[in-house]
Amino acid sequence: MRTRLRRTHDTLKLASMSTCQHCGASILPHRICTHCGHYKGKQTVTIKQKSENKQ
Predict the structure, then answer these.
(1) pLDDT in tens, 5-14
(2) Structure confidence at residue 53 (pLDDT)
(3) Domain assignment of residue 50, yes or no
(4) How many independent structural domains does the chain possess?
(5) CB 41, CB 22: distance < 8 Å
(6) Taking a C-beta distance cutoff of 8 angstroms, is the pair 35, 44 a contact?
(7) Does the residue 3 lie in any domain?
(8) Are 49 and 34 in contact (CB under 8 A)?
(9) What is the DSSP string of 1-55?
(10) By Cβ atoms counted within 10 A, which residue in 3, 10, 36, 55 is the most buried?
(11) Residue 39's domain spans which residues?
(12) pLDDT, tens only, 24-51
């Protein structure tokens, strides 16, 4: 029981997620959206689309 009491704080916490205001994807707070490149309603990074045609 002493070991269990000592280890009660050793649990993992889930990361809080927020949604992108532009595209609606779930992202970590205070980060640039990896899907559309927006942060706080402004375009900060241009994201290149991967080509679908693989030959």
Answers:
(1) 999 888 888 8
(2) 67
(3) no
(4) 1
(5) yes
(6) no
(7) no
(8) no
(9) -HHHHHTTT----PPP-EE-TTT--EE-TTS--TTT-EETTEE-SPPPPPPS---
(10) 36
(11) 15-44
(12) 999 999 999 999 999 998 899 888 877 6
